[in-house]
Amino acid sequence: MIKLRKTIAMIMATSMLAVSLVGCSSSKSESSNEKELTVWSHLTPAEVKKVNEVAQKWGEENGVKVKVLEDKGDMQAYIQAANSSKGPDIMFGLPHDNLGTFEKARLLAEVPEGVLNEDDYASKQLVDAVTLNGKQYGVPIAQETTTLFYNKDLVKEVPETMEEVVKIGKEKGFIFDVANFYPSYGFIAANGGYVYKNNDGTLDSTDIGLGNEGAIKGYQFLQDLVVKDKLISVDMTGDIASGEFMAGNAAFYISGPWDVKSFEDAGVNFGVAPLPTLNGNTIKSFMGVQTAFVSANSKKQDLAWELTKYLSENTSDILLNEGNRIPVLKSVVDSEEFAKNEYMLQFAKQAEVAEPMPNIPEVQAMWGPAGENIRLMMTNQLSPKECAELTVKQIEEGISQQK
């Protein structure tokens, strides 16, 4: 999940070089005898297998040979392939925060009219996640965010506030990977912090909100969990936190839908609920959106978008059941069948207030400083104010190095 987000800084240089080599030589014209499409996917093997079945059905009905392949390469490998004859026509299943990097490298075809109907999606944020500078470059196929897991053997009711979670947690345990910026961001955003200013759908990387007063309040809450309240150890990791909750050593745990199956398999008596308020404010957790997009270098773009649209409309159950991913289509989220899924229904409720991770190239300058400085704050090497100021400074430096 998180691994795919941390695209190395080299990618931008490599991508620009690749674009200069390819130039404008690739034609977007489609030939009637080129009835073959290649789809790559970063989804799990089980999901890819099922998606392939849907793709083959469409292929048979439309006289098109379709190859659906599991892509295990990194982002640099994809960029190089996409700028050669070895790249796919379609990428099905990749976190939306990579879109800015690919769009800057001129690897994304703009979504044509009729493929994406904004009213079909469960929230506006889902469409925002695939929009860059007012243009859509991908189709949302699934979403994820973080919520509060609770052990029903330790607590009977879900607290309405994080302050109460902390109070109960001192006795019965409250745990999560604090130094991971993905689950921690919501506490910073709850008080008015933000990564890059959102100006009506356009992100401004020159306006970083991780150092304002609201952000500092969020950092203070995170530090208190470790230093003052001693709820979470300084060496906490996601695996340790998950294991502690699974073992029944914590009443509360913050994570995403990827943990549901392992807890079910382990027989944990747990529930899931949207994140309680902090200082009376809604916790706007990060949202990750799995997307599908068409390569700008595909010579069969019209046909590729037809298949992309078909797959996005007919794979929600696969991504839900095989990948524990929250559906994005309003028709699925509002269905009676989905209402029976007690866990994913709660994730969908939290997703309504979640905030998409930045999708511009500058997002790559965020992850390292944001996480590392929280870790330094956990060990009392930085105050919340110093953490906020240093994070902004380092992100600005990272952005300047990208130019």
Strand residues, percent: 15-25%
CATH overall fold name of the largest domain: D-Maltodextrin-Binding Protein, domain 2
What is the CATH top level name of the largest domain?
Answer: Alpha Beta
| Percent range of helical residues | 40-55%
Shape annotation: globular
How would a crystallographer describe the biggest sheet? 6 strands, mixed
* Mean of residue pLDDT values: 91
Q: How far from one another are the termini?
A: 27 Å
Structural class: alpha/beta
Low-confidence stretches: 1-33
Number of strands: 14
CATH architecture field of the largest domain: 3-Layer(aba) Sandwich
> Number of DSSP helices?
17
The CATH superfamily of the largest domain turns out to be Periplasmic binding protein-like II
Radius of gyration: 21 Å
Tally of individual domains: 2
Signal peptide: 1-18
Family: Belongs to the bacterial solute-binding protein 1 family.
GO biological process, one term: maltose transport
Membrane topology: Lipid-anchor
Task: Put the structure in a nutshell.
By secondary structure, the protein is of the alpha/beta class. The protein has 17 helices and 14 strands. The protein folds into two domains: 3-144 and 287-356, Periplasmic binding protein-like II (D-Maltodextrin-Binding Protein, domain 2, 3-Layer(aba) Sandwich), CATH 3.40.190.10; 147-286 and 359-402, 3-Layer(aba) Sandwich (D-Maltodextrin-Binding Protein, domain 2), CATH 3.40.190.
